[in-house]
Structures are given as structure tokens and as C-alpha cells.
């Protein structure tokens, strides 16, 4: 009977306690201070949805600005605060020393946000509420001035293979496709888009251009694995005047480093997959910390990994060790230092020869080609044939005679400072190194001789230069290996000075780079400790200087219209030292019957210069809907082989400095586009037309023995492309993109300035090779409560193949690959936050379509000097068993388990 009154008493006491607690809280709230203000852009326009953070005295408060940029933060205890405003596509604005008394209400001066640099524009669509835009794997932003796709960090983390390189990551971009013959991330991949092959576009990392000095191509597996990449900004145009690099010709792929979090995090990953592929990775994010007990101004991200794989191709083993370090230090809210260092150590057994159609596909069922002589070895060994026939180990072209050793390193230090009155200065000195030491056999696989007679012939035919397995049987032969070396070290810097005002944004800057390169190829004997012959195929050192000063102005004509105009001066200087060789490149440097006292080296120099103007505009029809147009020019630094020359000893040796340098390749791009970001739907679409000059051909002047290089006929590529994301249900998105395009030759080689031996070609109307008529990608993703599921299918349309000077000699049929990804991540804010299980499946349907083709010959006779030749339209060459096809790597899976550890737990 007494329990009930006691229960009522406890209930009354509880209610009274709650009432007193609420009263005290309200009383403190009434005493709390209040901050109000606005966030504006350089035009004085409010930045809607900007995030405002108020920090001080152990208190942190956040608020979102409204559509006009106004914000309010209340309930602040007395103290001194720092106020930070942030919005995507803008740099952070900070004001400090804000003192508040109890109950005070303070109106701050407007916080002005300036437009961020490219590396800072990782998120998109400032001030726009769009679920579709936030969850899109790839898409543009409403402020863009050309066709761009920003690939999110979420896509890289969840919807690509853990061993992927950047070539695999950018395949999602409209019109883009990447070819890799040994499996994703297990070999040198090449990326194509809009009719441009690798070498016709820039790639940079955090704004630092990187490319090979031999030609402006890239080494996808020796630099920047996916573990280092936090997103990609892909601009499918020459960009504006401030777009720097050796080839602002077709476009720019801007790789971005990992975003640095504010919380400490440790992650270890173990992966295992098809072809005995193993990956072990460790990553550490320090979060904000202080040096020697000082203020928390530092942040550090470290990643190390070890990867091994047998590869898709037989006996093409891969080993890669890598590590990166990213450090950031804030001297003040206005000045930030960033430093990066990345090192890769790569070893592989890539073979020096490509497998033939006979070796991979075997005899045809229709009898269109035969496999005899050299082509009869290893008939039908399969798609993954590389260098061996497993059924006959005696005939192995031994992988131990093919070694590819490549260490690289890449470093930069960047300093960004706000100087006041809207002025910003950013400078970034850098250096990087590529060191490729390669040994490979140049052996030709043949059928085993019936008898071994001690000669270097087989069935009466001389073996040239030799064959490993025949040598093993006691047959003498010539050296058949190649000792290949390519090494360069670069030093450079990028700098930009910008000023944001209510009228617009000025940008001026400079890119400068110096490089030294050492290259050679020596015929070598792999069976005699790799003894080199006296004379090389080539041996050279060269030095290059590149510099690009630029200036542009982004004029804010109205609150909705921005117009940007500018120009850059692209200059490139080349100085080469050739050593005498065996005739493959420059010859023995004797002339006019001279046999003694021949020079051992010859030098040559050249300079290429070009003004590259650009003009574009962006008009905001609505805050979430814009249109843009662009006219821009681009150029390409020439490959080093434009300075190769050869001659006969009966001719005069070319005098240093007299080699005729070719004209520089240039392009002109026109495009229009639109960007729309609705709540549950996004659309990015554009149409483009690009006229560009093709790569070089050369002939030797019979009178002067001088090598004359000239540009091949010009081409026009034009098309339309789009990408879209639609939210189908909560967490369920549909992603689509497609292109329809053509690229055809329109130019004619003018022989007016050349002597009669030079051929004239007029292949107008013929397609540019490796330019698909269309591409499509379909993707569907589901992301909810730590589960990330994705399916993506990429289709590449019909392509044409050239054979030397002859265009459209073969056709590559359409092909597609389907990939699927399953990820589960622990996101419970516990000590094991970010622990993850990840399954990646590539080429699920196990397709083996031909993706590239090198033809053994043509169906037309060679060009006759002094005559005019018009290429036949759509004429195909006869299929040969000696053709070298490239196939889609077979189906593969990889399972990854990431162990996350957040020492302080996530709040």
C-alpha cells in the first residue's frame, strides 16, 4: 500500500528536476551571445547554403546560410571566436578575434569568398540543394566554362578496383575509353577521348604536369596509383589561358590528392584476387595536430602499399611497392603550406614482342589466312598468350630474359597565401624522376628444327637476329636481346597571382620546367651476361626547357553572366646530343666516303613557340541551370624523334643546327554546353567541333641527306555528349552517359615547299583511327547505411585502323565491359569506424573482343616518290596471321578487407 505514494513522489521529483534543468538551460540560452552576418562572392552576391563555423573556447557551432547568404549563430558563451565560411567551388574565408560578451548580439562584416583553384574544386554546385548532384559518380558544375566531369572520391573508393590506375578511373567520363592488355592496373594503359590518343592531352597531379620527355605520353602504372587519388577533374577541352602543361591540345586530366580529414584515422587493407593478385595497403590520417605541443595547425596523410600479380598475360609478373606522404601546415587562416612526396618501385616481366593473330586465335575457320613459318609456333595459345606455350616448356621464350625495372619519385611544395584586398598568391616548385631500365629478348618464336646442325638457320632460312630456344639447343646465333634505358629528372614550378573584386577575377601566372634525359638501346646477348654490342640502335642525351606565362580575366558582366578571355605563350626548347650508332637512328656519322676520323657525336637544337588565346562565357539562367560556350586553342610539344636523322656514308653528314624542325601541332576547339542540377536529376550536355593537326611523318632529302619532318593532314572531330544522374529512390541512382561523334581527315599535304621526292596525300573524308563512332555507359548505384553497390557497363563503338600512311585499312568492331562492385563500410562512429569489405568484379561476361590492332601490311603498294596518292575510302587490308591484336583482359575478381581504427572515436 505504501509503494504507490512513494512512486508518485519519485515521479514528482523527476518532473521537478526536469523543469529546473530546462529553466537553467533557458536562462543560459538567454545569456548566450549571438553572431549574424552574410557570406558573399566577389561580385557582392550572397552565397546561398554556405557553411559557417564558429570556433572558440572549446565551443564549435555551425549554421547554413540562407538563399541570400545570411546566417545566424546564437547560444554562444562569452569568449573570442574564429568564424569560417566555406562553399564548394570557393576558397575558404576566415575572420578571427571576434570577442563576444554574455548576451551580446554582434553583426559581422560580410565574409567574401573567392573562386577556388582547380585542385580545391572537388565538390560541385555551390549553393544548390541537389541530392542527385551530391551523389553523382561524375558530373559537371553550374559555374563551368567548358565540358568538364568531376569524378568523386566516393566513386574512386567504391566503384573502381583497388589496383586500378587513373586510366581505369576516368573511363566513366563521356567519350573516354582506356585500353590495358594485362589487366586493370597491371600494365601500361592508354586513354583515348574525342579522337585524341595518349600524348594529345595534359595530365597533372595537384596542378603539376607530368609526362614523358621522349614524347608527351604518360606512364599510368608508374605514377599515381588509385591509393593516392582523391578525385579527378576531367576537362575535355584545351581549357582557358590558365590551363598549363605540355599538351593543352585535346584536354586535361587533373588528378587530385586525397582530401585531408580533421579526425585521426588508421586503415590497413589486404586484397586478393584473380591471377594471384595481392595488395597490402596501410594508410594513416593524423587529423589536426600541433607541432611540439603547439596549436593544431598540421595535418598528415601517409600511404604505403605492396602489390604483386602474375598478370592476365602468361608469365607477365608484376611487383609494385609505393608510398606517399601529404602534409599541410597552416601558418595562419590566410597562408597554408602543402607538401607531397610519392615513390614507386615497379618490376615486371613484360615481353618485347606482341603476340600475333596466329598465336592467339589460331587458324581461322574460314581459311582467310594461314599460319606457316614463324607464325606456326604456339598456334592458338589463347587470348592471354604472352611468351610461352605451357604444353611444351622446352620452347618457352623465357620470361627471365624480359625484365622491366622502373623506380619513380614525385615531389612538390605548395604555398598559398591571401595577401589582402582580394589578392591571392600560389606557388608550387616541384621535381620528379622516371628511371626505366629494361632488358628484353627480341626473339622470334619458330617451330623446332628437325635436326640441330650447329648453324644459325632453320630449314635453310637464316634466323634474324636469333631465337632463345634454338640457342639453348646449341645453335649459334647473333645477339637477340635489347638493353633499353630511359631516364629523366625534371625541375619546375607553377605560380599564379589572382585578384578577386566586385568586377571579376584576374589570373596571371607562369609554368616553367627544365629536364635532362638519358636514353639508349643496345643490341645485347642475354645468354652471355647481357653483353652489349659496341654500337647502339641509338644513344642520346637531351635537355628541354618549357615555359608558359599567361594572363586572363574573368569579367562578371552581370550577376548571371561571366566572360573570361586570356592568352598564354607556350614555348619549348630542345637540345639533343646524338651518339654514333649502327644505322638505326643517326648512323656512323661518316660522310662522303670518309672512313677514319669520323665524329662520334652530333648535336642539334630547336625551339617551338605558340600564342594560345581562349574566350568563354557562362550564363546562369537559374541558380541550378547554366549554359556556356568556349573557343580555345592548344598545342603539343614535339616528340624527340623529330631530331632523329639517318644517312648513307656516301652523303654529307648533316651540319649541326641545319635539321629542319617541323611546325608545332595546334588545335582549335569550339563547344557549347549546358548544366542542369535539379533536386533528383542532373544533366550535363555539350556539342563540340575541334580542328587539329596530326602527328609527324618524315622523309630524307636525297641531296642533303637531311631528314625533313612534316605534319600529316589536319583532322576535324565533332560530336555531342551528355551525362546524367537520376535519383530513382532513396539511395538508388541511375547514371548514364553517351557520345555520338566522328573524326575525319580534311587536310591535304602541300608539296609546294618540298622537293619532288616527297609524296602528296589527300585523304579527305577518311576517319581518324581509334576514334569510336559512339560510346555509352550505364551505371546503377545503391548507397545506404554503409552499403555501396554499383554496376557499370561501358560500350565502345566501331573504330577504324590505319596501316602506316594508309588510312582505314581495317575495322575494330564494338566491344563492351561490365563491372560490379559490392562494399560494406562500418559507419557507427565507433573506434572501428571505416572498417570495410569490398568485392570488385571486372569484365563479368568474360569478353575477349579485339580492342586494338597493329596490321602486318597493307593491300596497296608503297608510295612512289613524286606521285600523288589518294587513300581508298573504307578499303580494308587482307587479314594476316602476323597482325598483332590486343584483347580485353579476362574476367577477374578481387576481395579487399580494410580494417579501420579511429583512436579517438568519431563524433
TrEMBL record:
InterPro entries listed in its UniProt record: Beta-barrel_TonB, Beta-barrel_TonB_sf, Carb-bd-like_fold, Plug_dom
Single GO molecular function: carbohydrate binding
Subcellular localization, as worded in the UniProt entry: Cell outer membrane
Key words of the record: Cell outer membrane, Membrane, Receptor, Signal, TonB box
Signal in keyword set: yes
Domain TonB-dependent receptor plug: 162-251
GO cellular component: cell outer membrane
Residues making up the signal peptide according to the UniProt record: 1-29
Domain TonB-dependent receptor-like beta-barrel: 383-844
Family listed: Belongs to the TonB-dependent receptor family.
Protein name, entry field: TonB-dependent receptor
Organism of provenance: Telmatobacter sp. DSM 110680
Amino acid at each position: 500500500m505504501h509503494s504507490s505514494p512513494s512512486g508518485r513522489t519519485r515521479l514528482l521529483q523527476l518532473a521537478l528536476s526536469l523543469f529546473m534543468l530546462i529553466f537553467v538551460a533557458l536562462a543560459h540560452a538567454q545569456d548566450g551571445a549571438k553572431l549574424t552576418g552574410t557570406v558573399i562572392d566577389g561580385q557582392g552576391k550572397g552565397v546561398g547554403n554556405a557553411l559557417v563555423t564558429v570556433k572558440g573556447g572549446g565551443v564549435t557551432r555551425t549554421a547554413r546560410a540562407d538563399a541570400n547568404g545570411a546566417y545566424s549563430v546564437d547560444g554562444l558563451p562569452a569568449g573570442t571566436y574564429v568564424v569560417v565560411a566555406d562553399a564548394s567551388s570557393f576558397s575558404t574565408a576566415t575572420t578571427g578575434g571576434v570577442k563576444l560578451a554574455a548576451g551580446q548580439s554582434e553583426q559581422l562584416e560580410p565574409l567574401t569568398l573567392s573562386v577556388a583553384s582547380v585542385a580545391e574544386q572537388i565538390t560541385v554546385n555551390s549553393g544548390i540543394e541537389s541530392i542527385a548532384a551530391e551523389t553523382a559518380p561524375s558530373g559537371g558544375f553550374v559555374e563551368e566554362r567548358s565540358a568538364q566531369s568531376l569524378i568523386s572520391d566516393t566513386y574512386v573508393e567504391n566503384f573502381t578496383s583497388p589496383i586500378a590506375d587513373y586510366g581505369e578511373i576516368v573511363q566513366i567520363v563521356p567519350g573516354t575509353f582506356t585500353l590495358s592488355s594485362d589487366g586493370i592496373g597491371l600494365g601500361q594503359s592508354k586513354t583515348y577521348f574525342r579522337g585524341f590518343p595518349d600524348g594529345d592531352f595534359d595530365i597533372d597531379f595537384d596542378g603539376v604536369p607530368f609526362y614523358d620527355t621522349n614524347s608527351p605520353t604518360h606512364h599510368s602504372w608508374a605514377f599515381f596509383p588509385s591509393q593516392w587519388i582523391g578525385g579527378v577533374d576531367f576537362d575535355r577541352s584545351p581549357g582557358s589561358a590558365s590551363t598549363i602543361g605540355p599538351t593543352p591540345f585535346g584536354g586535361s586530366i587533373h588528378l587530385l590528392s586525397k582530401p585531408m580529414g580533421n579526425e585521426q584515422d588508421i586503415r590497413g587493407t589486404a586484397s586478393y584476387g584473380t591471377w594471384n593478385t595481392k595488395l597490402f595497403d596501410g594508410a594513416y590520417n593524423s587529423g589536426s595536430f600541433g607541432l611540439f605541443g603547439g596549436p593544431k595547425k598540421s595535418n598528415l596523410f601517409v600511404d604505403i602499399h605492396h602489390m604483386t600479380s602474375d598478370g592476365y598475360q602468361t608469365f607477365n609478373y608484376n611487383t609494385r611497392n609505393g608510398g606517399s606522404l601529404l602534409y599541410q601546415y597552416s601558418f595562419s587562416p590566410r597562408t597554408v603550406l602543402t607538401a607531397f612526396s610519392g615513390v614507386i618501385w615497379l618490376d615486371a616481366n613484360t615481353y618485347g614482342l606482341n603476340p600475333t593473330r596466329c598465336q592467339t586465335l589460331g587458324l581461322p575457320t574460314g581459311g582467310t589466312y594461314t599460319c606457316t613459318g614463324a607464325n606456326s609456333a604456339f598456334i592458338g595459345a589463347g587470348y592471354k598468350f604472352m611468351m610461352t606455350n605451357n604444353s611444351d616448356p622446352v620452347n618457352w621464350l623465357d620470361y627471365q630474359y624480359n625484365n622491366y625495372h622502373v623506380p619513380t619519385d614525385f615531389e612538390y611544395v605548395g604555398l598559398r597565401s591571401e595577401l589582402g584586398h582580394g589578392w591571392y598568391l600560389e606557388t608550387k616548385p616541384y621535381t620528379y624522376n622516371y628511371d626505366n631500365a629494361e632488358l628484353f629478348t627480341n626473339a622470334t618464336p619458330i617451330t623446332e628444327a628437325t635436326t640441330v646442325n650447329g648453324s644459325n638457320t632453320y630449314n635453310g632460312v637464316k634466323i634474324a637476329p636469333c631465337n632463345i630456344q634454338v640457342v639453348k639447343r646449341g645453335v649459334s646465333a647473333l645477339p637477340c636481346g635489347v638493353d633499353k634505358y630511359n631516364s629523366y629528372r625534371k625541375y619546375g614550378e607553377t605560380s599564379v597571382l589572382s585578384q578577386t573584386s566586385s568586377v571579376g577575377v584576374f589570373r596571371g601566372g607562369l609554368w616553367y620546367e627544365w629536364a635532362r634525359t638519358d636514353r639508349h638501346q643496345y643490341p645485347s646477348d642475354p645468354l652471355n651476361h647481357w653483353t652489349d654490342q659496341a654500337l647502339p640502335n641509338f644513344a642520346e642525351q637531351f635537355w628541354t626547357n618549357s615555359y608558359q606565362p599567361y594572363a586572363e580575366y574573368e569579367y562578371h558582366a552581370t550577376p548571371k553572366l561571366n566572360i573570361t578571355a586570356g592568352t598564354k605563350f607556350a614555348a619549348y626548347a630542345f637540345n639533343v646530343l646524338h651518339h654514333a650508332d649502327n644505322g638505326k637512328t643517326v648512323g656512323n656519322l661518316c660522310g662522303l666516303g670518309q672512313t677514319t676520323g669520323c665524329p662520334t657525336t652530333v648535336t642539334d637544337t630547336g625551339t617551338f613557340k605558340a600564342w594560345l588565346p581562349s574566350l568563354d562565357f557562362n550564363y546562369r539562367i537559374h541558380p541550378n541551370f547554366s549554359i556556356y560556350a568556349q573557343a580555345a586553342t592548344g598545342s603539343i610539344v614535339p616528340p624527340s624523334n623529330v631530331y632523329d636523322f639517318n644517312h648513307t656514308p656516301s652523303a654529307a653528314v648533316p651540319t649541326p643546327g641545319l635539321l629542319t624542325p617541323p611546325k608545332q601541332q595546334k588545335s582549335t576547339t569550339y563547344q557549347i554546353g549546358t548544366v542542369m542540377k535539379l533536386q533528383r536529376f542532373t544533366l550535363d550536355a555539350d556539342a563540340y567541333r575541334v580542328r587539329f593537326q596530326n602527328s609527324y611523318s618524315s622523309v630524307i632529302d636525297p641531296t642533303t641527306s637531311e631528314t625533313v619532318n612534316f605534319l600529316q593532314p589536319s583532322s576535324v572531330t565533332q560530336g555531342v555528349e551528355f551525362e546524367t544522374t537520376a535519383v530513382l529512390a532513396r539511395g538508388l541512382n541511375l547514371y548514364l552517359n553517351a557520345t555520338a561523334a566522328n573524326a575525319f581527315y580534311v587536310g591535304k599535304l602541300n608539296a609546294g615547299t618540298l622537293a619532288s621526292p616527297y609524296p602528296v596525300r589527300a585523304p579527305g573524308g577518311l576517319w581518324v583511327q581509334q576514334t569510336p563512332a559512339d560510346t555509352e555507359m550505364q551505371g546503377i548505384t545503391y548507397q545506404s547505411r554503409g552499403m555501396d553497390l554499383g554496376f557499370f557497363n561501358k560500350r565502345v563503338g566501331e573504330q577504324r585502323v590505319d596501316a602506316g600512311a594508309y588510312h582505314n585499312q581495317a575495322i575494330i568492331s564494338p566491344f563492351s565491359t561490365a563491372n560490379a562492385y559490392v562494399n560494406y563500410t562500418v559507419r557507427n562512429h565507433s573506434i572501428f569506424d571505416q572498417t570495410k569489405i569490398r568485392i570488385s568484379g571486372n569484365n563479368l561476361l568474360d569478353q575477349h573482343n579485339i580492342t586494338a590492332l597493329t596490321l602486318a601490311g597493307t593491300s596497296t603498294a608503297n608510295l612512289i616518290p613524286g606521285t600523288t596518292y589518294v587513300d581508298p575510302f573504307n578499303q580494308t587490308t587482307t587479314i594476316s596471321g602476323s597482325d598483332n591484336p590486343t584483347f580485353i583482359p579476362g574476367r577477374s575478381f578481387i576481395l579487399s578487407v580494410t580494417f579501420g581504427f579511429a583512436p579517438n572515436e568519431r563524433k
